[in-house]
Write a structure and sequence with these properties.
With 277 residues, the protein is α+β, with helices and mostly antiparallel strands. It has two domains: 155 residues, Roll (SH3 type barrels), CATH 2.30.30.110; 111 residues, Beta Polymerase, domain 2 (2-Layer Sandwich), CATH 3.30.460. The chain is built from ten helices and ten strands. It has a six-stranded antiparallel beta sheet. Strands 9-8-7-10 form a four-stranded mixed beta sheet. Strand 8, helix 9 and strand 9 form a beta-alpha-beta unit.
C-alpha cells in the first residue's frame, strides 16, 4: 500500500466514531447454501459450495470501537458495520432494549430506524472514503454512546435460559408483547418498565428452583395499586413439571434493587424467551 494512500485513509478515519451512519442505496453481502436458501427470492440449486448474494439495506452504521477505527490502517485495516432497517411494529420494545438483536438509533427515532445486529459485515477502512461525505452521528451524547456500546456487548453475552424456563414463559411473553404500549393500565405500566430481571435460587441447575422476577421501573415512576396486575402476570406462568417450585414477582427501581440482587439476576429480554420447537 502506498504511503499517500495510508495517510489518506488514516485522515478519513479520524472523522469517524462508533455509531456513525450513512443512509442510501447500500448493499449487505451474505453467504448462503444454494441447496436450501432461507431468504425468499433466492433460487434453489444443487451447487454444493457456499454462495454469496447482495441485499439492499436502508443504510449502514459503524459498530467498531472508535479507538480501533482511528488506529493506523496498517495495524487495523478492517471495521465492522451493521445494516439499518425500519422497524415500526416493535420499535418501542427495541428502544427499551427488550430485543438484543436490534438497537434503536436516537438520531433516527422519527423514522423508527434501528440497527440489525444479526446483519454485520466487515469492510476495509478505505471504504470509509466513499461513505465519508454522507456520514452522520447516530448518538450525540456520551450517555447515548454508552448505552449503544452496552447493547453491542449484550448481544454476545446473553445468558442462555434453560428450555424448561423458556417454554414455561411463553404465555407471559405473548401477553407482555401484546399489551406493551396500549392505552390501558397494564400497557402504561409496561411502558414504565426499564428492564425485567430474574434470579434463580440456589441456581439454574438445581432440582428445586425459586424464581424471583423484578420489573424494574424508570426512575421517579409513580405506580400505585399494581399488585393485582403483578399477580395476574404471575398466574400466566404454568410451572407444570418444571423444577421451578416457587415464583415471586415484584416491582422495583434501581435504588431499591440491591447490588446483590442485580448481580445474581439475569436480564430477561423477549428474544431470550423464543425457541424453535
Amino acid at each position: 500500500m502506498k504511503e499517500n494512500t495510508i495517510e489518506h485513509v488514516n485522515r478519513i478515519t479520524k472523522n469517524w466514531q462508533q455509531g456513525d451512519y450513512v443512509i442510501g442505496d447500500l448493499m449487505f453481502l451474505f453467504g448462503y447454501n444454494p441447496c436450501c436458501p432461507l431468504k425468499e427470492g433466492i433460487e434453489k440449486t444443487n451447487d454444493q459450495r457456499i454462495s454469496f448474494i447482495e441485499d439492499h439495506v436502508y443504510g449502514l452504521i459503524l459498530l467498531s470501537q472508535t479507538c480501533d477505527v482511528r488506529r493506523d490502517c496498517r495495524d487495523r485495516p478492517y471495521i465492522e458495520m451493521a445494516a439499518l432497517q425500519i422497524e415500526s411494529k416493535k420499535y418501542e420494545l427495541i428502544r427499551k432494549f427488550r430485543m438484543p438483536s436490534y438497537v434503536a438509533v436516537p438520531a433516527l427515532a422519527t423514522d423508527k430506524i434501528v440497527v440489525d445486529l444479526e446483519r454485520v459485515m466487515t469492510f476495509e477502512k478505505s471504504s470509509l472514503i466513499l461513505l465519508d461525505a454522507a456520514r452522520k452521528s447516530g448518538f450525540t451524547t456520551p450517555a447515548e454512546l454508552k448505552k449503544f456500546s452496552w447493547a453491542l456487548g449484550r448481544k454476545r453475552s446473553r445468558f442462555a435460559f434453560p428450555d424448561e424456563f423458556t417454554t414455561m414463559m411463553g404465555p407471559l411473553k405473548k401477553r407482555l408483547i401484546e399489551k406493551h404500549g396500549k392505552n390501558t393500565k397494564e400497557g402504561l405500566l409496561l411502558t414504565l418498565v426499564q428492564e425485567i430481571r430474574v434470579r434463580a435460587a440456589p441456581d439454574w441447575g438445581n432440582e428445586n428452583v425459586a424464581l424471583t422476577f423484578w420489573f424494574v421501573l424508570e426512575e421517579n415512576s409513580l405506580v400505585s395499586d399494581a399488585n393485582d396486575q403483578i399477580e395476574e402476570w404471575r398466574k400466566l406462568i404454568d410451572k407444570g413439571n418444571s423444577p421451578y417450585t416457587k415464583i415471586d414477582m415484584q416491582l422495583a427501581d434501581y435504588q431499591s434493587l440491591t447490588a446483590k440482587d442485580y448481580i445474581e439476576s439475569d436480564p430477561l429480554d423477549l428474544e431470550a424467551l423464543s425457541m424453535t420447537n
